[in-house]
Amino acid sequence: DVCLITSLRDGMNLVAYEYIACHNQTDPPGVLILSEFAGAAQSLGAGSIRVNPWNLQETANAIYEALEMVPEERHALHDYAYKYVTEHTAQKWAETFLQCLQESCSDLIEVTSQVPPLLPYEELLSEWSESESRLVIVDLLECLVPDKQRKGAHSRGRPTLAARLPVELRQCLQTLAASPNTTVIITSDQDRKVLEGVVRDLPVFLAPEGCCVFRRPGEQEWQQIVEGHDVDSREEWMDGVTAVFNYFKERTPGSYIEKQEYQYRWSWTNAQFDFGSAQAREVLIHLWAGPLVNSEAEVVVGDRSITVRPHACSRAECLEKLLRQELGEEKLQKVDFALCFAVVSHRDEDVFEMVNTVLEEMQPPHSEAEPSPSRSRLGSGEVSACSTPRESSKRTGENDGSRSERKDSLLSTPNGPSPQADPDEPPPPYDWVPTAQREREQRQAAAGDDADVEEAPPKWQLEVISSAASDERSYFSCYTMSLGMKKTKAQHALPHPYHVQNLIRAMASRLPPSAKGLPTDKSA
Question: Three-class SS of residue 257?
Fold first, then answer.
């Protein structure tokens, strides 16, 4: 009738759990008297009578109460304890442990990431000009428009977003999007109305709001990427998050709230940095201890912003669905050049690896992969194959090719700060290429190399394969880039949006002849 456990020091008492499980079919069930010093008291305390075994009178009273307890009270205590035992199984514990471990690893991405090398400008353009099918993904407002051109901030409420693209840059994007076998996807964390107002009639894919929604080229209707059943639980935490955000908005001058269809963001862009940072820490404490307890929501800490969204709304997951659904397997298999510009929080850094992984999976079988004649740079006796950084890292013994710095890089950052320009002036010329050329000439002169000898390409990008097995490797290039010299999982970095603009201009001017509608020179 009664199970008395009077442990004076205990870690985890399994007898209490076994007693509850055995009495499920007993009518009426037995009563558990549990020492408050037992480990099980933290979980089964509400389904038992807790006692201090050092207090003999209290223990005696508990025994008497258990023996005289009516069946209704016995069932109430047992039902609570049995529900806990059946729900909190070893499988549930393992799943919770792995989930917490993954979240902890995700939070440490910024610590484990490295500052990537600068973009190999000429190598990228060379691959671009030889490509046959191209995929370009770029964060519009984050990568192409400097802050001073897109934020007219005021001290109260949300800043006005008056972003606009330079006329020449818009024409270059128009040229890229209109070229055959070229897919351009413009992403942004901003609202769809903001992105729509900036892009207007460009024939590109639009994926605002963290890629949760998208619009096809030439269409006006927005499509949903996230399925309804994946985000139905957001109603459980939305009211509580709204209350927390409104509370801190009133107490943080310069902060504002952005409510989108699938994510809710509190930004303190215009607040004083020290005070805003302290308030952001308080916001996180209130969220994790309040409305987000035991919820499926995800907290994303960005640059002066805190975003709450369902787990199914990550940037990498949504963008992957967009690529697979809209481009399809057949079109992705033909892509031999991919370029991804993104400025994301550390929790969304997986978007860089996702692009490379999807293209690797979509490559045709080795027996079907044939290197394009126009891409071959060597003689008839040798075959060139472009390897992704991940593949090359396995050959060179590096831990992570996507973030490894090249020791033979031909590029260096120009002296002084990043070039600046007025909103109505075109950006300054991209001055890294002359610097790289000067360094190349100096090394060749010092080594006494013949000027007519062509310099060998970098090992991580081009590998000479003289065996017959070389015909089994597919050929595609994938460049991932972030903005600013900071720790990231991207392969390369550009310091300023003006450099991204210049690269877009160069890509538009160096499209392959087939992309311009011109006949290719077969004899060459």
Answer: strand
How does pLDDT run across 144-188, given as a tens digit for each residue? 766 544 444 343 444 444 567 788 888 999 999 988 889 999 998
**Mean of the per-residue pLDDT values of the chain:** 75
Percentage of the chain with pLDDT > 90? Answer: 16
Q: Assign a CATH topology to domain 229-313.
A: Alpha-Beta Plaits (3.30.70)
Instruction: Decide: 376 and 341 in contact? Cβ < 8 Å.
Output: no
CA atoms of 115 and 486, how far apart (whole Å): 5
Handedness of CA 31, 35, 38, 44 (dihedral sign): positive
The whole-angstrom separation of Cα 415 and Cα 37 is 67
Tell me whether the CATH fold assigned to 2-88 matches the one assigned to 229-313. no
Q: What is the arithmetic mean of pLDDT over 97-112?
A: 66
Bigger pLDDT: 493 vs 428: 493
Domain extent listing, the chain: 2-88, 229-313
Encoded amino acid at 424, one letter: D
Q: What is the Cα 500 distance to its own chain's centre?
A: 20
| pLDDT, tens digit (0-9, with 9 covering 90-100), for 32-58 | 998 888 878 877 877 888 899 999 999
* CA dist., res. 144 & res. 184, Å (int): 14
Which CATH fold topology does 2-88 show?
Answer: Rossmann fold (3.40.50)
Angle between helix 121-130 and 432-447 (nearest 10): 100
Neighbours of 493 (CB within 10 A): 20
**Of 489, 483, 486, 492, the residue nearest 147 (C-alpha):** 483
- Tell me 371's DSSP state: -
In angstroms, what CA-CA distances link 384 with 376, 379, 400? Answer: 6, 9, 23
Question: What residues contact 368, with CB distance under 8 A and at least 6 apart?
Answer: none
Cα dist from 480 to 244, 352, 465, whole Å:
36, 6, 26
Long-range contact list for 459-462, CB < 8 A, 24+ apart? 459/392, 459/396, 459/408, 460/387, 460/389, 460/392, 460/393, 460/396, 460/401, 460/404, 460/406, 461/120, 461/123, 461/386, 461/387, 461/392, 462/377, 462/384, 462/385, 462/386, 462/387
pLDDT tens-digit map of 355-392: 988 988 887 665 444 444 334 333 323 333 334 433 43
- Distance (Å, rounded) from C-alpha 245 to C-alpha 255? 10
The amino acid sitting at 401 is G
**Of 194-208, 230-244, 427-441, which gets the smallest average pLDDT?**
427-441
Residue 112 is encoded by which pair of tokens? 């484990």
Return the pLDDT at 394. Answer: 35
Name the residue with higher pLDDT: 304 or 232: 304
Burial 48-64 (b: 16+ CB within 10 A, else e): bbbbebeeeeebeebee
Q: How far apart are CA 220 and CA 451, in angstroms?
A: 55
